Each structure stands twice: as structure tokens, then as C-alpha cells.
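Review form for a predicted model. The reviewer records the input and the model, then writes brief findings.
Reviewer: anonymous (R2)
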Amino acid sequence: MDRWVEKVAVVTGASAGIGAAIAEALVKEGLIVAGFARRTDRVEKLAKKLQDANAKGKLHAVKVDMTKENEIIDGFNWVKKNLGPIHVLVNNAGVARFDALIDSDTQKWRDIFDTNVIGLSIATREAVKDMRANNVDGHIIHINSIVGHQVLNFPSANAYPASKFAVT
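Model under review:
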């Protein structure tokens, strides 16, 4: 982890759960983290908690809805302008909508694919463009799910496993 001290990481879905835990761990290791989230108040609260965790690490809340391409691009532009070149991207944001496929509605499917596949792809594209432009040998990590690797008997998951297989 010494390689990444004072380097910039972007973590999507940083307001709760795995994303918040990843953001916290990276800050404690000395990284400068941009936490992308719709609920920036949660990221800001975590940032305050982490103020004294590591003198070199810091968490910044960046309002980004991963279903909106313009917000993703604006988020990456903010990071480049305010924090510097991107070295690490952790694509963690994800959603699931649980109901039977035949009872679900189209918007729920769009939410799943727009967040889990399209948003992840846009974020990856933007991070790679920045890494290439700055000659950064960085890392991109896609947080996935077991349902992206094997078919489970989970009837109410409907489009969610398909989105996770797309990530795989």
C-alpha cells in the first residue's frame, strides 16, 4: 500500500456499506479519496470521523448519481481539477431491485443496468482516460457479486444477476 500513499482514489457508492468501508480503509492507508455518492452528507460525516486517521489521507465527498453520465463526468473533472491525477478506481456502486421478473417494471431494470453496468463502464472509461493522459500505472477494481459468477436459485433477483454477469 505504500505505493499509493498520497495518491488519488475514486470510490463509487461511498456513502454506505462496502463503499464506505473501502473509502475508510484507503484513507487510513494515506490515500486521497473522492467518495462518489448521491448522499454526500453520509460521505461528509465519514470524512469528519477520519480527519485524524492518517495525516496524508483524506476523504472528499463528491455528489454523483451513477445513473447519470453527466454527473459521472463532472465528478471525474472535479477530481482532476481539485485532487490531481487518478491512480485507483473502485467501482463499488450497485443496486438491486427484488421482485418477480413478470411483475417488475422497466424502470427497475433500467436502474439496475444503468448503475451496475453503464455507470461502471463510464467511470472506467473516464479513469482510464485520465490514467493514460498522466502516464499513471493505476488500478481499477470492480466490486461484483457471486451472482455474477454462477446462476443461483434466486427468482426475485430478476435483472440483477444479468447485470453482475455483465460486470464479470
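Findings: The mean pLDDT is 95.
Further findings: The longest helix spans residues 106-133.
Recommendation: see findings above.
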